[in-house]
Amino acid sequence: xxxxxxxxxxxxxxxxxxxxxxxxxxxxxxxxxxxxxxxxxxxxxxxxxxxxxxxxxxxxxxxxxxxxxxxxxxxxxxxxxxxxxxxxxxxxxxxxxxxxxxxxxxxxxxxxxxxxxxxxxxxxxxxxxxxxxxxxxxxxxxxxxxxxxxxxxxxxxxxxxxxxxxxxxxxxxxxxxxxxxxxxxxxxxxxxxxxxxxxxxxxxxxxxxxxxxxxxxxxxxxxxxxxxxxxxxxxxxxxxxxxxxxxxxxxxxxxxxxxxxxxxxxxxxxxxxxxxxxxx
Length: 280
Ligand SMILES: C[S@@+](CC[C@H](N)C(=O)[O-])C[C@H]1O[C@@H](n2cnc3c(N)ncnc32)[C@H](O)[C@@H]1O
Hints:
Distance between the termini: 54 Å
Order of helices and strands: HHHHHHEHEHEEHEHEE
Largest sheet: 7 strands, mixed
Helix content: 40-55%
Bound molecules: S-adenosylmethionine
CATH architecture of the largest domain: 3-Layer(aba) Sandwich
Low-confidence stretches: none
Shape: elongated
């Protein structure tokens, strides 16, 4: 697909992208067309390319609805099966699984009243979905776990973890508009075991969770206070802390946490810590 004309000709005769489950094919093809459209001047070619992109978006919408129905029937894991073989991914980029998850959750990022977060608190950015899948596998999250996302944003982690494992999931998020959107998405998918609450993670009730997740939601003294809260919980019961991003380095310095990771300070991939008090 080296020119817009040849890309269009190829795709107009290619049946593969018309299969609703071919999200990756459509995502790659639409990206390629968008790139080739930059600087394109022939109005006929431009309108054929736009028609193809629109047709792909319509088929995506059918695929997303099929997946949403599967989730409502309790078959979400099977619906996501084509994308679950992620290995141990690295990096912060997004891929086709994020595209699928975004389509399935149909979450619009709301305009928030306070665009820059308070001191030591980090702005919203979703965890790349392949890291969530990796975290589930390496932390061995199962149906009897209770997973809590501290700084849960729009709820990608609580929702995907619940869909893939059946575990009850909790989230605390300081921005009420995010919580409202996340809970709307969970309700529309019939996910009764996903609960997000508005609040500051420092004040959250941590007593139910067996797994805590942090994608660097805060730094400095806020992070230290929340880690101290997790440590108090770890003195009571075995638990696991799953991290992504620079906050991992702070967790790696905690003497009560241990990790099997070759580099427990790695900030470009998931690191799983287990608490080293009794039974941990
Ligand atoms: C990097 S995003 C992570 C979002 C989500 N955990 C994910 O991985 O997709 C950090 C989130 O933490 C929230 N946050 C920051 N400080 C917070 C605090 N003290 N209490 C609760 N949420 C906080 C931000 O509003 C933002 O939505």
